[in-house]
Amino acid sequence: MRRFLNVILCAALLLGLVPVSNGAGISASAYILMDGDSGRVLAEKNCHERRLIASITKLMTGLVALESGHSMEEEVTISPEWAGAEGSSIYLAPGDKVSLETLLYGMLLRSGNDAALSVAGSCGGTVENFVTAMNQKAIELGMVDTHFANPNGLNAEEHYSTAYDMALLARACLQNETMAKIVSTKSATFGTRIFTNHNKLLWRYPGCIGLKTGYTEKAGRTLVSAAQRDGLTLICVTLNAPSDWADHTALLDAGFRQYHSETLVEEGGEVCSLPVAGSLTAFCPVKAAQSVRAALKPGEIPRPGLYLTVEQLDAPVTPGTVVGELIYDLNGEEIGRTDLVTGRSVPCDLAPKWNVWERLLAFL
Question: Which range among 15-19, 141-145, 208-212 shows the weakest confidence by mean pLDDT?
Fold first, then answer.
């Protein structure tokens, strides 16, 4: 009953996102609500504050493992130092032979610390090498307030992140097809092992698509979740949140109530054109390399800005050549960008070998 009342209270306070930004009704010490497409921050409190993160660390472990080039079918022989992990476990024993796929599901659904060490050791050669790769990936994703000391999230002085950085990581996880599939799985069976996802929002919250829970006594309850409705993807992160299920329900509800997803430009959409020197084709179309979508409130109109690296093109022109960026701005905040690329091939002008009549006919 108390949890039900918490949900009702949070929903009542979240008639808009202004109360959320002041922390009203949310139990978390730090949180963020982010648009999964654009990365726009919709609500936050202490989102850049470095904190212990517990087992949501394993999102980075899974992503780095999947990008390591190792096959999901690869058989891993469990070393004694991996099997002896403290905390949550999938009960691996030294000498066990387990597929990498089984380890990933055991790590991300059941949060096995032994599975995390086994994933790291097998994919990185050593756990230490793998943790180095985790930190390199954090830099690549722009997680400037993050440092990993282990692959499982056990408390360590040099192991920390922020709500904002973990939301960036969640975006990257959702863009990886295999990772997105695993973290959205409610239950999986591998031989005699049955893994049930600890993320109760997969059952409780309509549209939930994962991602990961975490807990240590010092970190408190940590949770990264995502949900989709009507084309809008929202990511929510809470750190040290005693009522994390209620917090995520309230934040996600408020986000879906106030925002909608809008396509600002389609992939391949023509944005402008550039003059071409050395060809009978006077102009080359310039197109968006990727679609840009963003969460917007009714009445919000982003302003597009074209940033071209050249004023004209020289033939021959190859399609797909990057010539600048298209950046969308809303009230001084960037909410989306894409490369601008040449939209067609343009050959060199062979006109000097033609006579006057051939030149005239070429333009008819």
Answer: 15-19
Active-site residue, 225 included: no
Q: How many Cβ atoms sit within 10 Å of the Cβ of residue 331? A: 8
Please determine, for residue 1, whether its predicted confidence score (pLDDT) is greater than 60.
no
How is residue 321 written in tokens?
């050549």
Residue among 55, 88, 243, 261 flagged as catalytic:
55
The four Cα atoms 253, 180, 38, 221 give a dihedral, to 10 degrees, of 50
In angstroms, rounded to a whole number, what is the distance separating the alpha carbons of residues 315 and 272? 18
What gap in Å lies between CA 44 and CA 42, rounded to an integer?
A: 7
Q: What is the pTM of this model?
A: 0.87
Q: Give CA–CA dist 150/53, Å, rounded.
A: 12
181 catalytically annotated: no
List 27, 38, 111, 122, catalytic entry: 111
Integer Cα distance of 116 and 89 in angstroms: 9
- DSSP reduced 3-state for 36: coil
Question: Active site residue: 27, 38, 45, 58, which one?
Answer: 58
- β-pair partners for 77: 97
Instruction: Please provide the size of the chain in residues.
Output: 364
Q: List, as one string, the DSSP characters of 41-102.
A: EEEEESTT--B--GGGGHHHHHHHHHTTT--TT-EEEPPHHHHT--SS-----TT-EEEHHH
CB neighbour list of residue 67: distance below 8 Å, 6 or more residues apart: 137, 176
Q: Give, for 4, the enclosing helix (H) or strand (E).
A: helix 2-13
- Distance in angstroms (rounded) separating the CA atoms of residues 41 and 201: 21
Establish whether 111 is a catalytic residue.
yes
Distances (CA, A) of 29 to 53, 68, 123, 239, 247: 12, 34, 34, 6, 11
The pLDDT tens digits for 71-81 are: 999 999 999 99
